[in-house]
Amino acid sequence: MEDGKFPWTTALEEHLRAAVKAYRLLRRLQGRLILRFYGLVHLPISSSQPLHPISNYIPCLIIEYIQGVRMGSLKPGVDIPRPEAEALADLVMDTFRTMKAEKFVPGPY
Q1: In the chain, at which residue ranges do the beta strands (DSSP E only) sit?
Q2: What is the pLDDT of residue 38?
Q3: Which has fewest Cβ within 10 Å: 3, 21, 86, 106?
Q4: Per residue in 17-28, pLDDT tens?
């Protein structure tokens, strides 16, 4: 620990800043092609006295929750009809094309 910071805090802060920036840059896509981003909050970990101020809370991104099955667990032609899987793949590609048109460059995720 140097300068009163834990080693992981700088990397975590950079990651969160990059994610917030990405959601703000892609605001027009939220709710259509990507999850809605509601904000960054700091949630308390405990009501007792922390050992160090940095350990008193945890930063969290608040994003939309969508009920359903993870796309990675689906098997095209088995769990989902192939035409529907292809339509989803087209939507993903459209999202990437839109991101490119918006000149969005992914950060260090």
Answers
A1: 37-44, 57-63
A2: 95
A3: 3
A4: 888 988 888 888
**DSSP state, residue 6:** -
pLDDT band at 101, cuts 50/70/90?
A: confident
CA 88 to chain centre: 19
Please name which of 37, 43, 6, 2 lies closest in space to residue 22, comparing C-alpha atoms.
37
Whether 29 contacts 94, CB under 8 Å? no
Query: How far, in Å, are 8, 57, 78, 105, 107 from residue 42 at the CA level?
Result: 16, 6, 42, 27, 22
Give the H or E element holding residue 84.
Answer: helix 82-101
Distance CA 33, CA 95 (A): 6
| Residue tagged 């993903």 (tokens) | 92
